[in-house]
Amino acid sequence: MAVLPHEGTYSVMYGPLAVSVGAGYRRGYLARPDHAGRFPTVVLTPDLDGLGAHEKHVARRLARRGIAVLVVDLYRTAPPDRRAALEAYQTLSDGEAMRTIDETFDYLRSDDIDWAQTERIGLLGLDVGGRFSLIDAAHRKWVGAAAVVSTPLTGDEDRQFQVAEILRHIGVRVLGLYGADDELVDSESVDEAQSRNITGQWLLYDGAAHGFLDESGDEYHEASAEDALARLTDFFTTHLPSKSEVDLG
């Protein structure tokens, strides 16, 4: 793994990481503070296209602020294009996605990992990946907090779980971040999410579109993205177990 110099509180280690899932492995990407000790830990579920530059960027930015982030690709193989990604998402069942997140948590608790705080972990979902973060947050006691960015809140009526119904049953804090000009997510559905998930915080950024957080995309909105990253940092550091650094002298 490479080490990224300071662009925040911490220098970070980052790079690809094969995540043990079932009898095989899933593509993963780890970014964590380059310090001895255990840090608040977040599992990030990618957007429609799977693990890519967007997820890696978000992971590194959060790691610079003291959060260990493990991105796990929910697809068994990387889709070659957008059409293939859509087909892969449509055939990915909620149950399979949940099993992948569950086994990623088991991997984090293994003896091989000495940098993760795993008493409770956070979940962060980008776009459609947020569906699975919210579903796991409603069903798993080891989830300490869940955040989603630009996650559709409707249109999943043919799937096993519907986000709109799940929101009422999430017992941990939730943070939802959206662009007010998102052409894929109606702002009214975000307001409805707030009414269903009254202990959560659901925010809309004026002038921001669906891809406002994606630094590599055409819809990147710097002011909204910087505020979102600051909110995500504060959210996870507040609601997850604190870091326990080790002084190596």
CATH superfamily: Alpha/Beta hydrolase fold, catalytic domain
Number of helices: 7
Rg, rounded, reads: 17 Å
CATH class: Alpha Beta
Tell me, briefly, the overall form: globular
Arithmetic mean pLDDT: 93
Class by SSE composition: alpha/beta
Question: What is the number of strand segments?
Answer: 12
pLDDT < 50 stretches: none
Helix content: 25-40%
**CA(first)-CA(last) distance:** 23 Å
CATH 2nd-level architecture: 3-Layer(aba) Sandwich
Q: Give, in order, the helices and strands.
A: EEEEEEHEHHEHEHEHEHE
- Write the CATH fold name: Rossmann fold
* Total discrete domains: 1
In this structure, how is the largest beta sheet organized? 10 strands, mixed
Which strand-content bin applies to the residues? 25-35%
Could you name the key traits of this structure?
globular; 27% strand; ten-stranded mixed sheet; 249 residues
Q: What is this structure's SSE topology?
A:
Elements: E1 2-4, E2 12-16, E3 19-21, E4 24-26, E5 28-33, E6 37-45, H1 53-63, E7 68-72, H2 82-91, H3 94-108, E8 116-126, H4 129-139, E9 143-149, H5 163-166, E10 173-179, H6 187-196, E11 201-205, H7 222-239, E12 244-245
Parallel strand pairs: 6-7, 6-8, 8-9, 9-10, 10-11
Antiparallel strand pairs: 1-2, 2-5, 3-4, 5-7, 6-12
Helix pairs in contact: 3-4
